[in-house]
Design brief:
Elements lengths: L2 H13 E7 L5 E6 L2 H4 L4 H12 L7 E5 L4 H13 L5 E5 L12 E2 L7 E9 L3 H12 L3 E10 L3 H6 L4 E6 L8
């Protein structure tokens, strides 16, 4: 089995919650993929970092991040996995809105101006969260190289129509969850 296979097994065992739920997009579904159960899990998080790096191995970037909260543990896992491979990748956190106190930053972490940034997300249904992060990063002077997600619920077309590269580790079909 590959690391991707191992991650898929953990997702289906730990993160798929059945029952009627309302997604952040407002759509209703008969299951929820709670990837925080994976990205914050002792065995799965290191796999997330390595599998996501492998997914975008041909993309050039030196910062990874996205809209808080879903992207934060992914970016951190990728930062650590990259370091283990001898590669320098920083992580950043994109707030939903600018802070009104302290340094009043919307992008936390190292400065992203003039840097190539990969936007990550755990699960994406509409792509709107990823595009919100893309816009904030561009406003901060970053060059966004693309969007990568662990599980795609249908966001690819919207993200690609915005002129961005888009990849996912898994589709719902890959996980046996196709509707």
């Amino acid at each position: 089995m590959t690391e991707r296979d191992d991650l898929g097994k953990l997702i289906t065992e730990l993160a798929v919650v059945t029952g009627r739920v309302t997604l952040s997009s407002g759509a209703e579904a008969d299951f929820y993929v709670d990837l925080r159960r994976i990205t914050l899990h002792h065995a799965a998080a290191p796999l997330v970092g390595r599998v996501m790096l492998d997914l975008v191995a041909d993309w050039e970037f030196d910062v990874v991040g996205g809209l808080t909260l879903g992207a934060d543990p992914i970016a951190t896992a990728m930062l650590h996995a990259a370091a283990m491979r001898g590669r320098a990748v920083d992580a950043c956190v994109v707030r939903k809105a600018e802070k009104v106190h302290g340094l009043q930053r919307r992008i936390e972490g190292p400065d992203v101006a003039g840097r190539r940034v990969l936007v990550v997300e755990d699960t994406s249904t509409t792509g709107k969260s990823a595009l919100t992060a893309v816009e904030a990063l561009r406003q901060a002077g970053a060059e966004v190289v693309g969007v990568a997600v662990i599980v795609d619920r249908g966001a690819g077309d919207l993200v690609r129509s915005a002129g961005l590269n888009y990849r996912s580790v898994f589709s719902l079909t890959d996980l046996g969850l196709a509707v």
